Amino acid sequence: MTGAQAYQFEVQGQSEYIDNTVNDKNFTGAVQGTYYFKNVDATKGPLAEAAFLNQASNFSLAYNYGEYDEDGLDIVSHTYGAKAEAYVPTQLVPVYASAAYSHTINDSKNNLEFDDQGDRYALELGAVVAPNFLVAVGYTSVADQTSYDAFNILANGVAKAALESGTINQDQDAITARTKYVGAIDGTNMAVGFEAGLVYGEDTMYNLKTDLYLTPALSVGASYVETSADSVVDSAWGANVNYFITPAVAVGASYVNANAVGEAVDTQTVGVNAKFRF
Fold it and tell me: Which residue of 8, 236, 238, 261 has the fewest CB atoms within a 10 Å radius of its CB?
C-alpha cells in the first residue's frame, strides 16, 4: 500500500439492537473483511465511496450472529458469506460482475422450533454506463428461505434483509436489478449518492436509498423499502449517519423502523458500526 490515503484492506463491525414490541432483548453482531486487489485511492470523493469511485475489484468474507427470543422461541442464528466483485475495462464501458454465497444456520435452543439451515447463491452483471453510475441485473437462488444475505445484513440491517427473504419466499429463484450513482455537487465540497433496487421473486420488493456527503468525511442518509409480500410487516424506512475520524477509521449509527399492519409487532432497530482501513 502506498500513499497517505490509500488502502487495500477494510475491516468493519456492526451490532444492532432489535425492539419488535413483543420482545426488546434481541441483538445482532456482524463483521466483514474485504481485500482489494489494487490500492484504493481515497482522495477522489467521499471516503465512504472510495472503493466504488475507484472501481476497485475485491473479495470479502462476512459473518453475522443473531439472537431471537419471543413467545418461548429461543433461536441463535449464524450466517456466513463470501463475495467477489470485479470491474473489467472495455473499449465501451467498464463491465461489472459479482458472485456471492451465504449460508445460514438457525439453532433452536428448545423444542418450540426446529433447527434449520439454508444456502443462497447470487450473481450480478452490469456496467458503469456513465461516470460513477452503475447499472446491474442479477439472479439469486435461495434453496431455503432460512438463508439470509450476509452482506445485505451488513449494508442495510437485519430488518430489511428479512423483508427481502420474505419477498423471495418459497419461489427459490429471484431476479434482481439495481442502480447506484455518486456525484459531486458543483461549487461545494459536498456530494450526493443515490441507490435503487428491485427484487422479483414470489413477490416484488423495491428499495430506495440516498446519502448526502456534507464533507468527504461526514454523511447523512435515508432509505425506504417496500414489499408486496403478504406479510405483517411490508415496509421499512431508515436513517443513518457516518463519520470518518481519519481516512482510515470511521464510526456510524443507523435506525430502521418497520411498521406492522394489523398486529402489534412493529420492529425498530438501532445499530452502531465501525470501519478500519489499512
Answer: 261
Among residues 234, 212, 259, the alpha carbon closest in space to that of 46 is found at 212
* Separation of CA 5 from chain center: 25
- pLDDT at residue 264 greater than cutoff 60: no
| Side chain identity at residue 40, one-letter code | V
Number of domains forming the structure of the chain: 1
Residue 227's Cβ-count burial label (10 Å; 0-12, 13-18, 19+) is buried
Please report whether residue 56 resides in a domain.
yes
Is there a domain that residue 153 lies in? Answer: yes
Q: What is the pLDDT of residues 75-119, one digit of tens each?
A: 788 999 999 999 999 999 999 999 999 999 887 776 656 667 789
Burial class (CB in 10 A: 0-12, 13-18, 19+), 117: middle
Domain with 243, as residue range(s), is 6-277
159-173, pLDDT tens digit by residue?
888 888 778 876 688
Name the CA dihedral angle for 215, 216, 219, 225, rounded to a multiple of 10 degrees. 130
Q: What is the pLDDT of residues 215-236, one digit of tens each?
A: 999 999 999 999 887 777 788 9
How far apart CA 46 and CA 58 sit, in angstroms, is 19
Q: Confirm whether 29 is domain-assigned.
A: yes
Model confidence at 269: pLDDT above 50: yes
State the amino acid at position 258 in one-letter form: A
**Sign of the CA dihedral running 104, 208, 198, 169:** positive
Q: Which three cell numbers stand for residue 151?
A: 452482506
